[in-house]
Amino acid sequence: MRYRATVAYDGSSYFGFQRQIGDTPTVQLALEIAIARVTGQRVNVLAAGRTDTGVHATGQVIAFDVEWSKADEALLKALNANLPDDIALQDMRQQAGFHPRFDAISRTYRYRLLQTEHRQPLLRLQTWQQRSQLDETVMQQAAQIVIGEHDFASFGKPPQGENTVRHIFVSQWEQQGLAGGTLWTYTVEGNAFLQHMVRRLVGAMVKLGRGGLTLTEFDSLFRRAELMESMTMAPPQGLTLEAVRYSE
Question: What domains appear along the chain, each with residue ranges and CATH number?
Answer without folding.
Answer: 2-94 (3.30.70.580), 106-245 (3.30.70.660)
